[in-house]
Amino acid sequence: MTSTAFITHRDCQLHDMGSYHPEAPERLNAINDHMIAQGLDSYFVYHDAPLVTFQQLHRVHTAAHLERLKRASPELGIVHLDPDTAMNRHTWQAALRAAGAGIKAVDLVMAGEVENAFCAVRPPGHHAERAAAMGFCFFNNIAVAAAHALGAHHLSRVAIVDFDVHHGNGTEDCFKGDPRVLMVGTFQHPFYPYSGTEHPAFNMLNVPLSRGTDGEEFRNVVSDIWMPRLREFQPEMILISAGFDGHYEDEMGGLKLLEKDYAWVTVQLKQLAEEFAQKRIVSILEGGYSLSALARSVVAHIRVLAEI
């Protein structure tokens, strides 16, 4: 059995926020090109991301948010929702695919068809709050997937792990105070979106990292802070908000992580999933804007997932 599903959709490359925007279609092209160059494309089972349903989105987003986004979708040109976050005529469809990828991933993993899945999608999701798009994000893909695992598959404990350089404020907004979800995260601080440090809920384990933090310090946080809480929680599925903008080559942030650090943390999470979660992992792409570093980091991550 191929152990890892790779879920994407060409619609995700049609969302475009302007020629100078870092969250660009080329991000997915870079990942695909590097996978082929490394000879990895034959090791995965490929799936097209379906369109998420309104009902699936509504588990985490307000109806007003969904209606507001649909109304904002332009027929021509680009419409800005805030200075960083914009829609073209393909954005709505791309966002539905990006959230749908997480649904498909959860279904495949829960059916036992694969052990784990990686969703190479955009727009990203972890900044999208219950009632607001922000930070390049429209729907919270990881939250929609987690809510699907809880609601449709009746899991009682899911863990969300977020190692993006930015705090996953949207995911926290969706699940703060929900005992079925443990979210653990590292993020540069102080840094956008300037959240995550003020009295987080009991189920949010937020570890701010200062600018310049390197892989050794990151690994210590994972080993000494994340892992004891995750083991105590005993998750039945692990979902990863896989943002690679903490890489030292990524000018979006100021952390100094390397591909080997992303591979290492993936090994730790795989071991945890094997012990508690029947190997179930769903990983969804978040940030990562230096194209070469992004592609190399994703390949390091999925090599571990697929045991290549």
TrEMBL record:
GO biological process: epigenetic regulation of gene expression
GO molecular function, one term: histone deacetylase activity
Keyword Hydrolase: yes
Entry EC number(s): 3.5.1.-
Domain Histone deacetylase, chain residue ranges per copy: 21-305
InterPro entries: HDACs (IPR000286), His_deacetylse_dom (IPR023801), His_deacetylse_dom_sf (IPR037138), Ureohydrolase_dom_sf (IPR023696)
A Pfam family it matches: Hist_deacetyl
Enzyme class name: hydrolase
Keywords, sorted A to Z: Hydrolase
Keyword match Hydrolase: yes
Family to which the UniProt record says this protein belongs: Belongs to the histone deacetylase family.
Protein name: Histone deacetylase-like amidohydrolase
Gene expressing this chain: hdaH
